[in-house]
Amino acid sequence: TPSKEGKMFIKALFDYDPNEDKAIPCKEAGLSxxxxxxxxxxxxxxxxxxQAKHEGDANPRAGLIPSKHFQERRLALRRPEIIVQxxxxxxxxxxxxxxxxxxxxxxxxxxxxxxxxxxxxxxxxADVPTYEEVTPYRRQMNEKYRLVVLVGPxxxxxxxxxxxxxxxxxxxxxVTVPHTTRARRSQExxxxxxxxxxxxxxxxxxxxxxxxxxxxxxxxxxxxxxxxVRSVLAKNKVCLLDVQPHTVKHLRTLEFKxxxxxIKPPSIERLRETRKNAKIISSRDDQGTAKPFTEExxxxxxxxxxxxxxxYGHLFDKIIVNDDLTMxxxxxxxxxxxxETETHWVPVSWLH
Length: 352
Ligand code: 5GP
Description:
alpha/beta, six-stranded antiparallel beta sheet, binds guanosine-5'-monophosphate
């Protein structure tokens, strides 16, 4: 389904180096790309190898990239939980670049059925990130702002960055008010610190998928509702939300158009240098008290960031390394300014 002006663009959700691809008919004809790159599709005539070029690249020569279908299949093959059975392929592998490139109909068919899922119900291609069709999008005047999701490991400084952003322009940025089932404290007001609701209502709301995330703490529920995001956006503010990266998938809708920023820790050496006098509320501390960072905290932060990036990196629109807080904040500010004024690539499904 080509988009406007017959051009089709995709965002790569994985890194690709044709030199390391044993299946490519000709390595020299391959196009290498990185996760997040925008590619223009020039031809999808072949079932296994599409022709593409980097978006904006003046060089008209297209290169070969694995087709979505082919890449999904072979990635699924590497995953033990997915049973994919290789079928016998007619022995035409060494037919050379030209021939396998201009496949006849018959060959196409053969290639298409190279791998067949034994249990198709176990094969969820949505969990195998390959490409996503995208289209340029620019916020229109009077249009609601986008939801901005901040993700990052505990202690990386996400809360501090969020706080700095909020106080830099309280009219422009907003955060959600969480729900809780615990009793209101005397100095608190309903709808300010929390929205106080009964356990029964909370449970009903959970069942009705009204929460983006929720958790339990000391026999009470706490959670962020979808409506709380809506009410920030309805005030014509940018909604800042920090959640676990696995929740992002559910927020990726036309309504929210989330822009996902990953706050990444610097190297462990830089962490030791820059966090010398800082404190952390460690995930291992049940009391929730702030203490000086330990070597273990640093290691946990780096490891957690690596896991987040490898599992959810394809959902990140921007990565900001929080080495120096002032610098990271500047970069964050610039990112927000650009988000509101420049054209960005969004999934085509958001605009239809
Ligand atoms: P407190 O009752 O002292 O206000 O908060 C207790 C705990 O609830 C805190 O550790 C806080 O992190 C957690 N909490 C507050 N809001 C939320 C929320 O929206 N979702 C989740 N999962 N936990 C929350």
